[in-house]
Amino acid sequence: MDPITLKLTAEPIIRLALQEDMNAGDLSTEAVMPEAHDAVVDLIAKQDGVIAGLDVFAYVFRMLDDAARVELMPCGTRAGAAPAEGAGRAVRDGDCVRAGELIARVRADARVLLSGERVALNFLQRMSGIATYTRRMAALFAGTRTSLVDTRKTTPGLRVFEKEAVRAGGGLNHRYNLSQAVMLKDNHIAAAGGIAQAVAAARDRAPFVCTVEVECESLEQVREAVEAGADIIMLDNMDHARMAEAIALIGGRAKTECSGNVTVENARALADLGVDFVSSGALTHSAPILDLSMKNLRLV
Questions:
Q1: 8 Å CB contact between 291 and 47
Q2: Is 59 in contact with 17 (CB distance < 8 Å)?
Q3: For the chain, where do the domains classified as CATH 3.20.20.70 start and end?
Q4: Over the stretch 21-61, which tens digit does the pLDDT of each residue have?
Q5: pLDDT over 80 (residue 218)
Q6: 153-210 confidence digits (pLDDT tens)
Q7: What residues contact 221, with CB distance under 8 A and at least 6 apart?
Q8: Class at the top of the CATH hierarchy for domain 3-136+288-299
Q9: Side-chain half-sphere of 192: how many Cα atoms within 13 Å?
């Protein structure tokens, strides 16, 4: 995540998460560690996957202690082993990690490590789970012209983290929010009185730099969208044969996107269509977390 986004967009959300977890302090930590004491703890992978959100993980601890430091380990370092001399570059977002791998060591006041652990892991596990699921699905389109993109079906308040995780996993981001592009769905079309009217209104009112995408559920709608000059045509919940017919009908006059209950189990069947984009809400709403743990805290 770039530093500006981390500071301006992500920081307030991280702060809220910390306030939610200890709005009146951390009773457990205050009981066992009433005074400041430097400590270090290991971040360890408990299952194979793709890591994402390391900068967010580190930011949680820095919000609690400016002196907190996260030392990223060389790729492939095993838990319990010292990093080998000249072991190579440190792990970074988008890297594959293996169960039992030492990803990082966190150094800070022991009270900060204890109090910030859950929130830091919640962000990192969620983002890494999305990156892992995205990597699996993106691999299904390797060698094709099709790009995998996410949707706005994100956890409320966590979109900035979840869309960043999709990118770490090898997917692309669809529009971030309603302000970025025009997407005319069935209810917009109904409100405007038809596809031609909706596209014309969008061209008239939206900034000229915005693309106009139209969601179509039938071949007749596809014809209307092409004639209206849509930039992108989404083929929504069509069967395979109907999508192939729609893509032929469009004939390169607009970018094509297919959508509708796309999961890692069925995505491969779409690869031969030659569609430009496949969008999947499952990337963000159905990915399980990646199991990670902070272990072996020791005072120094």
A1: yes
A2: no
A3: 139-285
A4: 999 999 999 999 999 999 999 999 999 999 999 999 999 99
A5: yes
A6: 999 999 999 999 999 999 999 999 999 999 999 999 999 999 999 999 999 999 999 9
A7: 195, 214
A8: alpha beta
A9: 16
Cβ within 8 Å of residue 34, ≥6 positions away:
none
Higher per-residue pLDDT: 267 or 123: 123
Q: Which residues of 247-279 are buried (b: 16+ CB within 10 A; e: fewer)?
A: beebeeebbbbbbbebebeebeebbebebbbbb
Give the tokens for residue 158.
Answer: 């966590």
**pLDDT tens by residue, 83-126:** 666 668 999 999 999 999 999 999 999 999 999 999 999 999 99
Residue with tokens 């194979």: 48
> Which residues are the active-site residues?
118, 153, 185, 215, 236
Neighbours of 240 (CB within 10 A): 12
- CB distance 95 to 75 below 8 Å: yes
* C-alpha 78, offset from chain centre: 27
The DSSP H or E segment spanning 108 is: strand 102-109
Contacts of 94 (CB under 8 A, 6+ apart): 50, 51, 52, 131, 168, 169, 170
pLDDT category of residue 272 using cuts at 50, 70 and 90: confident
Residue ranges, CATH 3.90.1170.20, the chain: 3-136+288-299
Architecture of domain 139-285: Alpha-Beta Barrel (3.20)
**Helix%, strand%, coil% for the chain, nearest 5:** 40, 20, 35
